[in-house]
Amino acid sequence: MQVTSRSRRRVQFQNFLFTILFVAAMGLLGWVSTQYDVHADWTYGHRNSLSPASVKLLGTLKQPLTATAYARATSPFREPLKRFFANYQAVKPDIHLVFVDPDLDPERVRADGITAEGQVILKYGDRSEKLDQINEAQLADAIQRLERASDRYVVFLAGDGERNPSGEHNFDMGDFGKQLTDKGFKLEPLNLAANVGVPDNAAVLVIAGPQADVFPGMVKLVRDYVKRGGNLLWLGDPGSLYGLDPLATDLGVHFGDGTIVDPNTQLLSINDPTITLVAKYPEDSPVVSGLNVMTLFPGATSVTPDKDSTWQQDEFLETLPRSWLTMAKLAGSVGFDPKRGDKQGPLPIGVALTRSVPGKGEQRVIVTGDGDFLSNAYLGNAGNLDLGLDIMNWVAHDDSFIDINPRPAPDLSLSLSPTAQLFIGFGFLAVLPLLLLIAGITVWMRRRRR
């Protein structure tokens, strides 16, 4: 190409035009960056961003939330707390983080009961909570405790071998009870032999699998509570109702006479056919709205509501079609036999009942054909804990907390077996130095030969 004055001017014009367009593009990108805020969290478990459950929980807050952190100006707690609450402030701007230097305000430290640096006081309305450690799950629990409009007393029927909400045995429900306490529920045992009835301030009465006959007088007290419009969670089991048959009649539900057998659990490498799998939930059910994990029910029976009952019914838990209710003894090989009275699935094992009570609004009752799914032995399986919390929130009329169960990021800690620790320690202390020594000697010998 021949270079002329005309071609030089053309190149100069192109360079000038490119510079103008480049500067304009950079300016446009700078302006766009001020108008839109885009974040990307590529960490495993999204540990640097809020879970959808936390975002949903913040949407329930109607008032500002103030977090007062006690940390000195040079404290290493300040920057992590700023980064932590920045995620929440991006969703809810009226969350305020305030730092207090404990050395400069000792009276406030004593008034708030601060015993260690880094503790945080959460204040919402006229209620407050002190947190020793901060993570997403703990903060979500604290917010739920603060936001509940009033104390939620959950009374557990006791005195007839029922599951203990603070017990540590496999049969008991101590782990679930702790979860409820963390969420702001107040748990109380209720022995009707020593009380005149169910307290009026009880948000929910729980009947968790009695193992002895409940006296007729106590059954009458429970029935009177239900007739007055009290909310009830009845965790039944296969076999005898232990004198609670009149209560089942009042509620219009029938418990199956046998135990459900579910071969579908073999796909999960579960060899016990009496463990029932629930993998799908009704989309229009308010109890399990948003629940998308499987739940397991060991030793369950069916719960069938009367179609002509005055209660509104929601069969929110249902087994898979391959399951069946068997009347046979669970020993050896068990097969479906309609002549024996076996009933083919799908079968309801969880029913939600509602009705309008004058002067009290909507009454809510849940009856399940299994109580083991919330016991210490099985609570950690699949989505049993999430289901249990959703059930309790719905029965207690805390609908805004349904499907709000944040979990901490799964990569916060590294657990190594003793063998792995020995292998890593030996590798760094012996193998790696030895390899470096061998490499150094090899390089030295090669250079010496030259």
Q: How would you describe this structure to a colleague?
A:
- By secondary structure, the chain is α/β, with parallel strands linked by helices.
- The protein has two domains: 52-145, Glutaredoxin, CATH 3.40.30; 152-401, 3-Layer(aba) Sandwich (Rossmann fold), CATH 3.40.50.880.
- It is built from ten helices and 18 strands.
- It has helices at 5-35, 52-58, 78-91, 106-111, 136-147, 174-182, 216-227, 245-251, 384-395, 418-449, and strands at residues 65-70, 95-100, 120-124, 127-131, 152-157, 185-190, 202-208, 232-235, 253-255, 259-261, 275-278, 295-298, 303-305, 312-318, 324-326, 343-344, 348-357, 361-368.
- The strands form five sheets. It has a seven-stranded mixed β-sheet with strand order 6-5-7-8-18-17-14, with helices on one face.
- A hairpin with a 3-residue loop joins strand 17 and strand 18.
- The longest helix is centred in the last third of the chain and has 32 residues, at 418-449.
- The chain is extended.
- The two termini are 53 Å apart.
- The mean pLDDT is 88.
Spatial order of the strands in the main sheet?
6-5-7-8-18-17-14
Strand content: 15-25%
**CATH-derived architecture of the largest domain:** 3-Layer(aba) Sandwich
Count of all domains: 2
* N-to-C SSE string, H for helix and E for strand: HHEHEHEEHEHEEHEHEEEEEEEEEEHH
The helix/strand class is: alpha/beta
Distance between the termini: 53 Å
Helix tally?
10
What name is given to the CATH topology of the largest domain?
A: Rossmann fold
The global form is: extended
The CATH homologous superfamily of the largest domain is termed Class I glutamine amidotransferase (GATase) domain
Low-confidence stretches: none
| Spatial extent as radius of gyration | 31 Å
The amount of helix comes to: 25-40%
